[in-house]
Amino acid sequence: MYVVQNANDKYGVINDKNVEIIGCKYENMKFDESTQEFFVTNALSKVGIILANGTNKVDIQYDELSVLNNNLYLAKNDNKYGILDKDGKVKVDVNYEEIKTLDSDIGLYIVRYNNKYGIITENGQQVIYCEYDSIGVDAKSYTVDKIENQYLLFDNLIPVKRNNKWGLFDTKGKEILPCDYDGFGCVVTGIVDKVANNALIIPECECIVVNKNKKYGIVNKNGELLINYVLNAVYSTTNSGVNKYFMTFDHNDETIEYEVPWYLEQMGLYTPKKTEENNSNQNENQQENVNEEENKINGNTVEEEITENTVDSNEVQI
Fold first, then answer.
1. Can you tell me the distance from the alpha carbon of 218 to that of 60, in angstroms, rounded to the nearest whole number?
2. In this structure, which of 44, 154, 200, 244 has its CB flanked by the most CB atoms within 10 Å?
3. Mean pLDDT across the stretch 67-84?
């Protein structure tokens, strides 16, 4: 097939035998390799879709059309967006100010309505109502964590922001954390006196760093508070391509530092996958160091302080 232009600067399509497939009557024409279809524009600057055999698939009635994924199309009219199915039929009415893919594999899309953000399915079902100022985190601030999707953590958690407070939903629309948090992640510039990286997630433990009242805590992917909001910093260091995550906090005029996965294991909050025999030896050495630190402390132990389960009424109970 060949796109051709006639003497009146109109576009059409012919086959290799010079037989007309699509008449030369369009102002513009673009062939999409992924769908093997032609996106055509008429004299009124309206767009439609024509199949390679010349059959109309989507009537020429939209201001813009584009492939949203292999089975869906994004349609725009009067600065509003909607979704068409693979046959060109409307699945989501053209009512939203913005639509973008959250995750095509699970069929979720971020939408903006009245300048607020929410989540819908490809059928238009509301998963998270359009009540939030933003959705997703700034993954560029946490490059070491290798966050593949800024809108989706651990393939299930959606960060949302409302009135400068952050919370989490799962992909079914269940609230995991209310919007009570100052932020997710720890930016360590000026906090830790060593080479350190910002930390948002701790992949090994499937945990998230949360910020509240100018302190940091750690929650698991179920929203359960594992480490209370007493930490000065949570960060990672990289050695030979391996990232290790640490936390620091003050106790009795001392700054104490633990490796996060190891500490959670000692508290019975995390069970690592053992891959090397020397892991046990390393843990024994670290346990000796912790015992030495604990012997210096009067009153509550470090463990009681940073894993204290009693929280304010507006905090998540565990």
1. 52
2. 200
3. 93
Helix (H) or strand (E) holding 1: none
Task: Say if residues 111 and 120 touch (Cβ distance below 8 Å).
Answer: yes
**CA 60/CA 161 separation, integer angstroms:** 38
131-134: long-range pairs with CB below 8 Å, 24+: 131/162, 132/160, 132/161, 132/162, 133/161, 133/162, 133/163, 133/164, 134/160, 134/161
Which of 108, 196, 85, 117 shows the shortest CA–CA distance to 157?
A: 108
User: Which of residues 94 and 36 earns the better pLDDT score?
Assistant: 94
Task: Quote the pLDDT of residue 316.
Answer: 32
For residues 233 and 219, what is the distance between their CA atoms, to the nearest angstrom?
A: 14
Closest CA to 268 of 203, 220, 313: 220
Give me 194's structure tokens.
């060593």
C-beta of residue 7 within 8 angstroms of C-beta of residue 25: no
**DSSP class per residue in 245-263:** EEEEEEETTEEEEEEHHHH
Structure-block tokens of residue 89: 């039929």
Nearest-CA neighbor of 134 among 156, 102, 105? 102
Q: How many CB atoms are located within 10 Å of the residue 191 CB?
A: 15
Question: For position 253, what pLDDT does the model report?
Answer: 86
CA 25 to chain centre: 44
Sketch the domain layout of the chain as residue ranges: 183-318
φ/ψ of residue 155, rounded to 5:
60, 15
Q: Hey, what are 113's tokens?
A: 């309505």
| Residues 66, 84: Cα–Cα separation, whole Å | 10
The two three-digit tokens of residue 81, written as one number? 């967006």
DSSP H/E element including 231: strand 225-231
What is the model's pTM? Answer: 0.82
Sign of CA dihedral 202, 208, 213, 214: positive
